[in-house]
Each structure stands twice: as C-alpha cells, then as structure tokens.
Amino acid sequence: MAQVTVPATDPAVYSQYQAKWSALPDTADAWLARAREVAEVLAQDAAQRDQENKSPRAEVALLKHSGLLKLLAPKKYGGGEQPWSVGYKVIREVAKADGSIGMLLGYHLLWSTTANVVGTPEQAERTQELIVANNYFVGGAVNPRDNDLKITSDGDYVVFNGSKHFNTGGVVSDLTVLEGVLEGTEGHIFALVPTRQTGIQFAHNWHNIGLRLTESGGVKIENVRVPWTDALGWDESSKKPREDILLIPFASLLLPTIQLVFSNFYLGIAIGALTFASEYTTASTRAWPFGGDNKESATDEFYILERYGNFFAHLRATEALADRAADQITALYSRYSGDRSALTVDERGEVAEWVASVKVVTTDVGLRVTSGIFEVTGARATALKVGLDRFWRDLRTHTLHDPVAYKNRELGRYVLLHEYPAQTWYT
Length: 427
Description:
The chain has about 425 residues and is of the alpha+beta class. The chain has 3 domains: about 130 residues, Butyryl-Coa Dehydrogenase, subunit A, domain 1 (Orthogonal Bundle), CATH 1.10.540.10; about 100 residues, Butyryl-CoA Dehydrogenase, subunit A, domain 2 (Beta Barrel), CATH 2.40.110; about 170 residues, Butyryl-CoA Dehydrogenase, subunit A, domain 3. The chain has 13 helices and 9 strands. Strands 1, 2, 3, 4, 5, 6 and 7 form a 7-stranded mixed sheet that branches. Strands 8-9 form a two-stranded antiparallel ribbon. Helix 9 packs antiparallel against helix 12. The chain is globular, with a radius of gyration of 22 Å. The chain starts with 15 loop residues before the first helix and ends in a 10-residue tail after the last helix. The model has no long low-confidence stretch (mean pLDDT about 95).
C-alpha cells in the first residue's frame, strides 16, 4: 500500500519542554501542576490548531515530554505510580485547554493499563516495562459498534483481520490495542501491537466537527500477527482464556474505567469553556444599552452574573460527583489488584452506577454550559478567530459515543428495581 502523507504539526515546536520537564513529578499535587503547565502551553494556540486540523504529532510529543503518559505506570519502570483518581484529574486539566489532547491522554492511560486488568501478571509487567521504557503513546482500534476483528490461530501466533470505522489516536501512536473474537469461539482477545506495520492501514478520514486533533478515523487490519504469549489473559498452551483472569468481574472494570475517562474530559472541556468565556466577557463583551436597567459594564448586568453563577455552581457540583466516582473506582483497583477474584458482581455494579451518574451529569451540564456561554459573551464571540465554538463542538461530538438516554434508563432500573447493569462494552 502506498505511503499516505497527511499534514501534521511539527514536534520540534515543543522541543524545549523535553529538558524543562526532564524529571517526573513526585506527588499528586506536582502531577496536577505539570498537567496545568501542559494546558497553558496548549491554550496559547488551541483555536488555531483546531481550525488547521493537522495530525497531532507535536501535541503527542508534548505529552511525552511532560511525562504524563507515565502517570499510572509502576515506579520500578520509571512511572509515576499514581492512582486513577489522580489520572482523571490530570485528564480534566489538559482538556480544559484542548479537548482533543485531553481525550488522547485519557485513551492512552486506559489502553496503556489494559494488561493490568485483562492480562496475566507477567503480561502486565512486560507491557508496562515496554511502554514506560520507550515512552510510548498507545492508541486503540476497539470500536464495539463495528463487527469484531476476526482472529485465527496459526501455530504460535494469532492473526487479526478486519476493519473499524473509528480508532482513537492510532495514526500518531507507537502501539495500538487490537481486539477481536477467536474463530470458532466466543472468546475476545486483546493485544498490543506495534502501530507502524504494513498490516495496519489508516483511512485518514477523521474530518468531523469536533475533537479534530484526535485522529479518530477508520483503520483496516490485515494479517497482523501476534504471538500467543501476547494474547492478554489467554493461556498460550491450551489456547483458552484464563478463568482466573478473564472470567471474573475484575476483567470488566475496563468499561467503567473508560466511561469515567470520557466524563472527565467532558468536564474539563466544560470548565475550560466557562473560563475562556469569562475572560472574554470581562475583556470584550459590551453591556446591552436597550434593557431599561442599563449598566456601564457587562459584568454588572444581572442576567450575565446570574448565568455565570449558575453555570459555575453546576460545574462545581459535577466536579465533586466526578471526584467521588473516581475515589470509588480507585478503591476497587487498590483493594483487588492483588486478588482479582475477590471482587464481587455487586461491588462492580455499584461502581458502574456511580460512573453512569457522572456520565449523565457531565453530558447534561457540559452541553448546557458550552452552548449557553454564547448568550453571555455576545455576537462578536462567534468569530472564528475567538474559537469559542470549539468547546461545544468537542463535547457534542464525543457525547454521541454511546447514547446517554441508555445511561438514564440504566440508572432508573437501579433506583426502581435495584438492578445493576448487565456487563456490556458500554457499561
């Protein structure tokens, strides 16, 4: 297949940060401070980069320089060994400045820890060492709405074939997570593979209204061979899933974990929108001279103060809910990573409902804030050079990932019937 060249941002523009951030942060507060530094860099030209819609190679390089890709990884391999509760806050901070890069970071943190959840202990250790030692960025071609990739066994290898309409960050990744079903079984196999190989062919067709720098377009997988030893959670001798790894509730924690990733970059985008709008209103919005209760400044107008106050209150409450859910899921990982089989269906279900609650609220509040800020910034704020529209476009794009109506229904059954959700690709 002919090499496709697509416009990309230049990693050299952020080269200075490789030396500036040569040491990893060593506390939770320091990691959050590093995330805010990254956000400050991204905020300088976020609107321009969004409009140029180039492949985000420079932005991924910035994440690598910052050390944020290593946030959750074990210290013994050079990682930060922070819990997911910190990871979610870091995603949120980056998304405040750039929703696309917050999303890429969130997906990387999920995919880079996949082996910890569905792999054997040996696979988890080997995978973590590989990712951290090379400072790899991990993308994923795991879109459950499409047909699963077809997997065949060929001696000591499994072979992946198929295609996905969406993959996230694949074009700019070093490793890609593949997932499919083994022929003749109902067993799903996850594996991390090098991205730069002829069997992985990207469509370069991500031209959507939002999250334009996430490279979330299609991908074709053609005869990608993976050693059986890299089939996460499977026994290489029997060619069967390990019951103590994959057939227990712990393995399904990947789903609420990534759903909470979504909610945190939604929340970051919404908070970023309010911050951006408030700065614009303070500097540029003019008071309305025909209201009958005229003010000298827009910041003295009742309806503007009321809207900003209401948006702020709802976002503050949403942030508290998101942090509470993060604490819940972090506690499960802390309690059961050493004994995965001890996690119960009910404990897993309870956390899933906390996560579903956050998904509902971040979607509702986020869309309301990112569209409502135009009412308090004024007509001139719709200029492309301002870039206020990117917050709504980013949030609107990803909140369609899986319909929030089903999360509301799921929570309704929990309230009325005391049912936990069935474990699916979206719960």
